Automatic annotation (TrEMBL):
<protein>
    <submittedName>
        <fullName>Uncharacterized protein</fullName>
    </submittedName>
</protein>
<dbReference type="InterPro" id="IPR051341">
    <property type="entry name" value="Zyg-11_UBL_adapter"/>
</dbReference>
<dbReference type="InterPro" id="IPR032675">
    <property type="entry name" value="LRR_dom_sf"/>
</dbReference>
<feature type="region of interest" description="Disordered">
    <location>
        <begin position="659"/>
        <end position="688"/>
    </location>
</feature>
<feature type="compositionally biased region" description="Basic and acidic residues">
    <location>
        <begin position="663"/>
        <end position="688"/>
    </location>
</feature>
<dbReference type="GO" id="GO:0031462">
    <property type="term" value="C:Cul2-RING ubiquitin ligase complex"/>
</dbReference>
């Protein structure tokens, strides 16, 4: 968390420098922060008004020039600094430094470009120069001129720069201090003069081709050379049968390449070498091989992926011992902890899913540690990044294991909070991972005793995200019944845990939205078992919200949904709506009654259905007319009580003849509760 706050602060300082908000303050960022800040600013299109503050506030030592950056603003910034590293990418974009020669070939004036970047008035500080040449030729005598401008260079990279053999010889004489030289893809045919680079330690000759052995003989005069890259030369010795590598530096990667590219090779001599051949014959050997490749200087992704594939096959085998199984799982966990490479974590998380097949191998504390490692190592949920999506899919599958929900409250809460973060940051709740995280939120909240963390209790944004998912269900065809029920269950349990705050402004707003959206679901559940599940959930929900929210059901926009169904005589849909309203009424009464025994409402539903049969709505009448009509005409105490409750909950006043004397005192306590919820200056509206 501290690192995150620091990064935010550094980003804000960078932004203020860029926007000239610190022009009256005298300070200068250190080298590390300056280089970081400049990398950020490069993306913001530096203009003249920004350049002055950048030169005053930053102490830049490394600059990159790419497409769109070969302009005077960047050149001014560069010349004001004491640069140690300069990288030039895509010379074709530096059009003001390109010319056509007599042969109609493009030539780059690299000397003039570097003079715009390097201030020759300063003491020479440039140590590293990298130029991506794009196959372009430079003007004559460019090597000598650059060596005079930057005499202290120790690392020179010229990939794809067109260099003749004569120019290469001049380069060696003029840059005698070089320790690293990259001439890959440069077209050099002879290494004459390379012996003069007596301090050279690293030489990259990728994709260079030499015709005769004499062309590379000077190479063997380099006594300090440690790394020689000659990949891509596409040359092999087709008849090679014996290779003696004794006393030479060679690792398994290079040895494997030699064996693979020389079909007739029969023997490799490795005297005075400690190299160890690696195999994948069992889990132990696979882990040993994987660790070797992970620690090597040049990590071979393909080898590691193949080893992980072998490990996955071993783990799926039911005959694999518990000991080997656990060792392998612990290896995956160590890889996730130690290496932050997305491709490697994708492999490790994918393979670790099998841990759910033998959860009994891990004790209470090991499971805690596993959850912590998974949650810390998961990247931010980004639907645009395939590696992030893959890791999240594997991680949440692992965390769905029932064994984690028998662990400590802290462990369960950590899972729940991280799942909530995914839900709150996603664009679509019906996507696989967010939908699965909703399931885990519900699962976690059912397991936490007694209460979840403060991040979840009263989290209005999370609850509204879920409620919006319910609201969109009516227009979304791709969301399954399981998904919508899981969302509703999660809303219910969140509301339960936040029941003490049911009258807060946020809770009331959420409850009104949810009640209104649930009414709209009536038409979508045609199966009886679906309605039963929905009613069970609604009964649970309404017991934890403020009763004044019930008025939302009778607002005209909601009533338009369920009132036509209420008048659909003797239908299953009609029974469902009556059941819904009766259940809410009963819950409301139960709060004000000492006796909260179970009730049977089947007979009441039949009474109400029978009473509604003879009602005929006249066009232009109020949308609550059916309830007024029941108050005036029904002979059933239960029917009148229900109709009166609906009218009063909606905020309507009973008219003359609608309140029968013998039922006038019914449920006084409930009426008192509803009146208490209203504003003191509110008036009942009368519909004539």
């Amino acid at each position: 968390m501290v690192k995150t706050l620091r990064m935010l602060a550094e980003l804000k300082v960078t932004q203020y420098i860029f926007e000239n908000k610190y022009k009256n303050l005298d300070f200068k960022l250190n080298e590390s922060l300056s280089n970081w800040a400049y990398d950020i600013m490069r993306k913001w299109s530096i203009r003249y008004e920004n350049a002055e503050q950048i030169t005053q506030k930053l102490e830049i030592t490394a600059m990159i020039f790419a497409k769109g950056e070969f302009n005077q603003e960047n050149f001014n910034i560069a010349r004001a600094q004491r640069l140690r590293r300069v990288t030039i990418i895509d010379l074709f974009a530096a059009t003001q430094f390109l010319t056509r020669n007599e042969e109609n070939k493009t030539t780059a004036d690299i000397v003039r470009l570097l003079k715009e970047i390097i201030n020759d008035e300063h003491e020479p500080t440039l140590k590293t120069l990298r130029i991506y040449g794009n196959g372009l030729k430079f003007q004559e005598d460019w090597i000598k001129t650059i060596s005079c401008m930057a005499p202290s260079i120790t690392s020179l990279s010229l990939p794809c720069c067109s260099i003749s053999s004569l120019e290469f010889t001049k380069l060696c004489f003029n840059f005698a201090t070089l320790r690293k030289l990259d001439i890959s893809w440069s077209g050099v045919k002879k290494l004459n003069g390379i012996w003069f680079l007596h301090n050279l330690e690293v030489l990259d000759m990728t994709c260079l081709e030499f015709e005769k052995g004499e062309d590379v003989m000077d190479l063997f005069e380099l006594k300090k050379l440690r790394v020689l890259k000659i990949t891509g030369c596409n040359k092999v010795l087709p008849e090679l049968r014996l290779l003696d590598c004794s006393c030479n530096v060679i690792d398994s990667n290079k040895l494997e390449l030699l064996v693979r590219t020389h079909a007739k090779l029969e023997m490799v001599v490795l005297f005075d070498r400690t190299i160890e051949l690696l195999t994948v014959e069992n889990i132990s050997c696979c882990i040993k091989s994987a660790n070797y490749f992970l620690k090597s200087t040049d990590v071979n992704n393909n080898f590691i992926r193949q080893i992980f594939s072998e490990l996955h096959s071993y783990m799926k085998n039911s005959e694999t011992s518990d000991t080997d199984f656990k060792v392998c799982c612990m290896f995956y966990i160590s890889v996730i902890k130690k290496w932050n490479w997305s491709w490697l974590r994708v492999c490790a998380f994918h393979n670790l899913q099998i841990i759910r097949s033998r959860p009994y191998l891990f004790d209470f504390y090991e499971k805690q540690d596993l959850v912590q490692v998974i949650l810390i190592s998961m990247p931010l949920y980004k639907e645009s990044e395939p590696s992030s999506m893959s890791i999240h899919a594997s991680a949440w599958y692992i965390l769905d294991g029932q064994e984690f929900y028998k662990n400590s409250n802290d462990t369960i809460a950590a899972i729940c909070e991280e799942a909530a973060m995914v839900v709150m940051s996603c664009n679509d709740l019906q996507s696989n991972t967010p939908s699965f995280c909703v399931h885990l939120i519900h699962k976690s909240l059912r397991s936490i005793k007694p209460e979840p963390s403060s991040l979840l209790i009263g989290n209005h944004y999370l609850k509204m995200k879920l409620i919006n998912g319910v609201m969109s269900y009516a227009t979304t065809t791709s969301m399954s019944y399981d998904q919508i029920f899981t969302i509703i269950k999660s809303i219910c349990i969140l509301t339960y845990h936040d029941r003490d705050n049911c009258s807060s402004e946020h809770s009331m707003f959420a409850a009104k939205k949810f009640i209104g959206s649930v009414v709209g679901l009536v038409d979508h559940f045609c199966e009886e078992w679906m309605r039963n599940i929905l009613m069970y959930l609604i009964n649970h929900y309404i017991s934890n919200i403020d009763v004044s929210v019930f008025k939302k059901i009778f607002e005209e926009n909601c009533a338009k949904v369920f009132l036509p169904i209420l008048l659909d005589r003797q239908s299953g849909e009609q029974e469902h709506v009556i059941f819904y309203l009766l259940a809410i009424m009963k819950k409301s009464e139960a709060r004000n009654s000492v006796n909260e025994n179970e009730y049977c409402i089947k007979s009441e539903i039949k009474e109400i259905q029978k009473s509604i049969e003879s009602f005929e709505r006249i066009e232009g009448t109020d949308h609550m007319e059916v309830f007024r009509w029941l108050c005036r005409t029904s002979e059933s105490k239960d029917v009148i009580k229900w109709a009166r409750w609906c009218l009063k909950t909606s905020g309507l006043e009973l008219l003359e003849g609608e309140e029968k004397e013998e039922y006038g005192e019914v449920n006084k306590s409930n009426e008192h509760e509803q009146e208490k919820d209203e504003q003191p200056d509110a008036k009942r509206r009368r519909v004539e």
